[in-house]
Amino acid sequence: MKKGLFVICVAALLATGCKSTGNTEEERFIEDLLGKMTLEEKIGQMNQLCFDQPLDSIKAKIRAGEIGSMLNIDPKLIDEIQKTAVEESRLGIPLIIGRDIIHGYKTVLPIPLGLAASFDPQVVEAGTHMAATEAREEGITWTFAPMLDISRDARWGRIAESLGEDPYLSGELGAAMVRGFQGEHLSDSDAIAACVKHFVGYGAAEGGRDYNSTYIPETLLRNVYLEPFQKAIEAGAATLMTSFNDNDGIPASGNDFLLRTVLRDEWKFDGFVVSDWCSMSEMMSHGFAADRKDVARISANAGVDMEMVSQTYIEHLPQLVAENKVPMEVIDNAVRNILRIKYRLGLFENPYAKPGKTSTIYCDEHLQTARRAAVESAILLKNDGVLPLKEGQTLAIVGPMADAPHDQLGTWSFDGDKNRTVTPLRALQTDEYNQVKYIYEPGLDYSRDTDTSDFERVKSAVRRADVAVVFVGEEAILSGEAHSLSNIYLIGAQSELLKAVKSTGKPVVMVVIAGRPLTIERDLPYADAVLYNFHPGTMGGLAIMDLLYGRENPSGKLPVTFVREVGQIPMYYNHNNTGRPAQNEITPLEDIPLEAPQTSLGNTSFYLDSGKDPLFVFGYGLSYSTFEYADLNLSSNEVSATDTLTVTATVKNTSVVDGTEVAQLYVRDLVGSIDRPVKELKGFQRLFIKAGDSQTVTFKLPVSALAFYGRDLKKKVESGQFDIWIGPNSAEGLKGSFTVK
Ligand code: BGC
Fold it and tell me: What is 198-243 written as a DSSP string?
């Protein structure tokens, strides 16, 4: 780099590194400590290790001040290791101990995609708070969650860990997770630091293959992918993790535009940034860094404060500083950011685990929290009247997921004890359900099983029962990180199992327990009802029974579009329109006449073999109640950018059962300086409505919430006409319109 240019860059870095003002007690503490640290000790704070070497060697490094954080270590060792840092290192700076507490620690909640289906920030906050309480009790002070990657591709295994396809929903629930993990004060005994990840665009991996490159232009990045991160940062997220992917050729751990311009300058983030696991050294595979020294230089200057695992900082930063290739101020600011969060966590005063008088792990309250979350996370996709089940019916319990205690916990649950999992089968053995008569005949041992030799036994069991409940889905290992699939039908012989059960003529309830939205269109004819559960966690079995028996009324809504066929992907509700949107029913492939003329099917945008529509739209979900929407009312049909529009509608429970409906508010900006999505979620509310009653739902929509980054890359509301809907999902609803002056 030319010298002049280097000086300009350094000046820019200094301006954007969260330099301390030194005027609060916190900042004074940090400055004081920083002043005592050697360069090596500072760089040590920027180094995070996992347990990849003998304990003695880890301890020696901690003693020498070479480690600032450890991740995913055996919780039993936390205090011992912490003691080495606090009592045996020169400055006694405590470690921040990170762990992937993604959807519960010991008591496991539904996977995040399931939590998202609740459309319930309170349940999400309560669940994550429960996780934080259990984790902090054991000395864990930092989680690598929430994952806020917008996921529009069900092949991508990590869709399981996401909050779905919508930026507004992900932002609202992501903020709820941050509040849940971090509690009132980070230093409380029930709080841990959150880490929003993966910054950014990771969910847009080409082809849904994990770690793949992304190509997201800045307008889309800002209007969709960054929105949930910004909301989570505004909610106070303490830390942020860079992603593995390169976007438009720039790996996230080397992207100073994202880490300095957006995160620090625009969003004023004052926590610290950690890389993902070796995502820094992987910049060499990307072809973005020549060697490990180059890696350290690029990431430090880009704004990665702490390096996860790959250790290029500890190896090369001293030399890079000596050579003036990484300014000292960059190091100081990174360390300030890290110390700030350690300080806020209260680690300097209370470095050790905080067990209460009695452990909260698996306590009743936590089990109930997990059960409620699982109830609200289930989505009823189809019901021809077989549900709810009736007392006195004999059930045939079939399928590999009826009793899969490990798999029901889903991806990222290293700490959940499968012996504590209440599977659907185990639920039937509890006091609450032991009056139910059932015959258990799984038919398949696990989801990938292709051995159909037990199917005759299954059929005979079903014939002896009144209703068959078939539990199908995916093992936990089939979704999550590095577990992408190119085929997302029910795996193994599960579709055949369903057909075999249906051939008996008995009513069939299909209960799916999976990590992603599977392509189940071909299975629907063989099920009279479908209840979909994204891996529902420790209490999933009881929650499912509560729902099947109508002790709870389903209220979950889809946080992602369900496609008919994998070839439709990407398909998401908030897409832009083509110039030729498909309008009508599509001619089925087999009905196309031979030698039909070229334009006979119309020149519009659809697939010959799977049409234009998904199987189930975003926001869809049934209930045992039925709801009717009426009387859409807008406080004004003409508003200005500073107004707040009040939009109301009446929602009536037209059934004989009490139920909860998630009313959803969508808008469309009809003409923009860039094309705008055909619909965008701008609000949702869970309404509990007694049988026969009506409720008015009121949304306050600040017109500023219609702002977007347009052609000039400035965020603003563009004047013009808007459509607006209140409805039960992204495809239906009452429609109105208004004009922004
Ligand atoms: C994942 C992160 C996770 C980290 C630590 C990485 O492989 O991408 O999401 O937090 O490992 O376990």
Answer: EETTGGG-GGG-TT--B---HHHIIIIISHHHHHHHHTT--EEEE-
DSSP secondary structure, 261-326, as one string? IIIIIIT---SEEE--TTTTTTHHHHTS-SSHHHHHHHHHHHT--BEESS-HHHHHHHHHHHTTSS
Ligand 1 atom 10: the closest Cα is on which residue? 144
Which amino acid residue places its CA nearest to atom 4 of ligand 1?
A: 277
Q: Which atom of ligand 1 is nearest to the CA of 243?
A: 8
The amino acid present at 391, given as its one-letter code, is E
How many of the other CB atoms lie within 10 Å of CB of 392? 9
> Which one of 50, 111, 197, 277 would you pick to mutate in the ligand 1 pocket, going by the greatest count of ligand atoms within 8 A of its CB?
277
Q: Is 579 exposed, middle or buried (0-12, 13-18, 19+ CB in 10 A)?
A: exposed
Q: Is the overall model pTM greater than 0.70, yes or no?
A: yes
The CATH 2.60.40.10 domain(s) of the chain lie at 627-740
Whole-number Å distance, alpha carbon 42 to ligand 1 midpoint, is: 24
Choice from 102, 144, 192 to test ligand 1 binding pocket (greatest atom count within 8 A of CB): 144
Residue corresponding to tokens 């593995």: 244
Interatomic CA distance for residues 653 and 659, integer angstroms: 8
Confidence of residue 165 (pLDDT cuts 50, 70, 90): very high
Identity of the residue numbered 165: E
Q: Is cis: bond before 146, omega within 30 of 0? A: yes
C-beta separation of 732 from 573 below 8 A: no
What would the pLDDT profile of 277-291 be if each residue is shown by its tens digit?
A: 999 999 999 999 999
Q: How far apart are CA 556 and CA 455, in angstroms?
A: 32
Q: What is the pLDDT of residue 6?
A: 40
Q: Which residue has the tokens 């849940």?
A: 180
CB-side exposure of 695: number of CA atoms within 13 Å?
18
Distance 100 CA to ligand 1 centre (A): 7
ω into residue 535 within 30 of 0, thus cis?
no
Give the separation between CA 305 and CA 328, rounded to whole angstroms.
13
Atom 11, ligand 1: which residue's CA is nearest? 277
- What's the full length of the chain, in residues? 741
Q: What is the pLDDT of residue 231?
A: 98
> Nearest-CA neighbor of 153 among 221, 215, 209, 229?
209
CATH class of residue range 3-344: alpha beta
Enumerate the CATH 3.20.20.300 domain ranges in the chain, comma separated: 3-344
Query: Which residue among 100, 153, 190, 276 is the active-site one?
Result: 276
Query: Mind listing the pLDDT tens digit for each residue in 86-118?
Result: 999 999 999 999 999 999 999 999 999 999 999
Enumerate residues lining ligand 1, CB below 6 A.
71-72, 100, 144, 197, 276-277, 481
Tell the CATH superfamily of the 627-740 domain. Answer: Immunoglobulins (2.60.40.10)
Cα dist. 691→120, 326, 658, 662, 694 in Å? 21, 66, 5, 16, 9
- 149 as an active site residue: the answer is no
